Amino acid sequence: MVSRWRGITATAASTTSFDGDGKVRTLIGASTARLEALAIQADGRIVAAGYSWNGTNNDIALARYNVNGSLDTTFDTDGKLTTPIGTGSDIANSVVIQADGKIVVGGYSLIGAYNVFALVRYNVDGSLDTSFDGDGIVTTSIGTSALIRGLALQSDQKIVAAGNSWGRASTVSHWRDTTSMDLLIIRLTVTVRSRLKLAARMKHMVSPFSWTGKLSPPAVP
Length: 221
Description:
By secondary structure, the protein is mostly beta strands. It has one domain. The protein is built from one helix and 17 strands. The chain has one helix spanning 195-201, and strands at 2-3, 5-6, 13-14, 23-24, 33-40, 46-53, 58-65, 80-83, 90-97, 103-111, 114-122, 137-140, 145-153, 159-166, 180-188, 203-205, 209-210. The strands form five sheets. Strands 13, 14, 15, 16 and 17 form a five-stranded antiparallel β-sheet that branches. The longest helix has 7 residues, at 195-201.
């Protein structure tokens, strides 16, 4: 659900100029859909990113709304889309808008037994940007399992992706690590030419820390 509020005060009320009651719900995919991140374009249109259930697993889901809360039909003809990447679930956790209006979504994709960093770039009309790694999609395997938590754009429009990687995960579905977790940062050029070069040259792992001292590991179900 997307809501818009009037003013920034403790008593702020939702504005009725946004879809009539200040909030909008959008069905994407076969049933359940979840919103994880928002970005506002320079023209005020709202880009919402997350994931939706396709009947078997989750796909990355994206919707764009006009200023008044209606779906923007110039975006993939109906204002919403889904993008499958791997054979398992694909999740979007973050979204940024480039200066040229292109939309970059970051998250993770289940490929084989483990999750990998996943980046998708879309043109202004919602189509995949094939100038980005040839198909608009980049996946990067780092450690046993990895996921993007956030994205940022530099002034030169290079993409910075930050998240976590696990050297030894208990199970992928639990997202737990009883040994260590690494802080992970990757920087990508505007046009990614090679996934192998990306993995070999552009990843930077900060030394893993152990769950000691004041930090306690999350419980493994």
